[in-house]
Structure formats: C-alpha cells, structure tokens
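Marked as duplicate of an earlier ticket. Keeping the data here for the record.
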Amino acid sequence: MGFTDKLKVGIGWRVRKVIKVIKKGFRRIKKFIKLVFKKTKEGYFRLSGVFRGRGICLLANSKRLKSYKDKHKGERCFLVGNGPSLTSSDLDLIKDEKTIGCNMVYKIFDQTKWRPTYHCLIDVMFAKNLSEEIAEHVEAPFFVNLTAYHYMKKRPKDSTYVYNVAKEPYKISNNFLSYYVPSGATVMSFMIELAIYMGFSEIYLIGVDCTSSLAKDSHFIKDYLSDDMKQMDVKRIENRLKAQDLTKEEVSEYYRQKAIFAYNKLNDFANERDVKIYNATRGGALEAFERVNLDDIIGGVNA
C-alpha cells in the first residue's frame, strides 16, 4: 500500500471516528432533552392541576372532567373488564346499575340490553387502529388519556381526556384532575381511579380475570384481538423492555405482574379513603381485592 493509500485509509478512519463521536453526542443530547421534557411535562401537569383543582384557568375539557368530581358520592358501581368470564347474563344482572365499560366491550352488545354508563380507553394501539370503530359504537360519556386522545382520528361525541404522565413504578397521583399515571398493564387501573374520583364508595369488578390479551381465550369472545394487533402488542413490550424475541407467554407474565402491582396499590389507596373494592369476577386469577358473589350483590345480600 502506497503513501497515498495509507493517507486515505487514515483520513477515512478518523472521519468515521469523528462521525461516531458526533452521533453518540447527539444521542446523549436527545436523551437529555427527552428527560427534561418528561420532567417539565410532569411539573406542568402538577402545577396546572393545582389551578384546575381550584377551578382556575379551566379549559372546556377540564371543566367537563371537574364536573364529574364526587358526582356519584356514596353510590356503588360496577367496573366491567373484558376477560373470558364476562357473560351477557351477568351484564343483564347489572343493566340498571352505574357501570363503567372499556375498550371493545361493545362486541357483546348484540347479546345484552346492558350498556355502560361510562366508557374508558387508554391504549394507544387501540386509539391508532380502532378509533373509527370505537366512535361508531360508544355512546356513553367517554374517558381517555391525553396520549391516546391525540392518536384517535375519530372520537365519541362526549369525550373527556385526562392528562397522563409516564412513571415507573406505577403510582397514584391523588389528583385525577391534575394527571394520572398509567399502570402500563391494564385500563382497569384508570377505571378504578376514575370511579374513586367520581365518589363511588363501593366498587365491584366483573370480568377482570387478570389474564393477558395475548393468552388463549383471554377475552369474552374468541377474536377480540386480531393476530396483527397481538403482534403489535408483543413488539411494543419488546421496545419498552429493550428486548428481542419475547414469547407471548413472557409478555403475558410481564402484564400480569404489572397489573397485580397496580391492583395492590389501588387497594391500599382505596382503603385509606374508606372506599371498598370487591372482586365479583367469576373465577380468574385476581386476588388483590376481597371476593364476593355477584348474585348475592344484585340479590341484595351485600348491597
């Protein structure tokens, strides 16, 4: 190799090294900016939440959300999960109760006269891919987090968003009007926080089997989620955990552990506020809340 060739190789090596250092620097700057933005956003939500809680500087959305504060004080409600234990006959039992449904529970509407009093969704994947379908079927007042709200091309007419801040591990902000922290595993944590915010003193869960959406027979109908959406779900957790080639079983266990952690936190939070949360699900794996029999509740034994 001649001198000229050696010079070219040397220069090329130095240029590549400089480019590598610059790229590394940009990644660090990007990471720093992202962290600052995250902290700034949380600080903004906390500070603005103080004003919103006092009725100051309220946007139309915050006014709607504030109007639900203690709206159902002292009442009971039923939160409906979409697990395999959910049946139309159980929904018919609670058709005259205050209820909160979620996600694609409308897929059971053709089997029951029950309709939810309120409807919730926080999953960005659903918001991106199913917003038109959701808007078509949801007629109840609709509650969603801000992130999912922005991804929805179309929304139900009566929609209210809640500010959300990503934190690990899951915590309860104690000011739902200010912001809430997603559990990263289940919409039910959002529903429970909403129910407590609304003032319900007795909260009953049905169809909350604590099963992953990726597990076999994980919902009340066979094709609740398409195979494409299940694969999206796996990819999302791989990105979140910075892992590759996770099995559906590994992702399911991740969701289960996150959900159980959130439920235990919520049970402690509710007990401190003299709110009772009961698990009226028929079977399932959720043991964080005291179990009760739905037939007894509706029959008046524990009402």
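See parent ticket for discussion. Residues 3-53 form the longest helix (51 residues).
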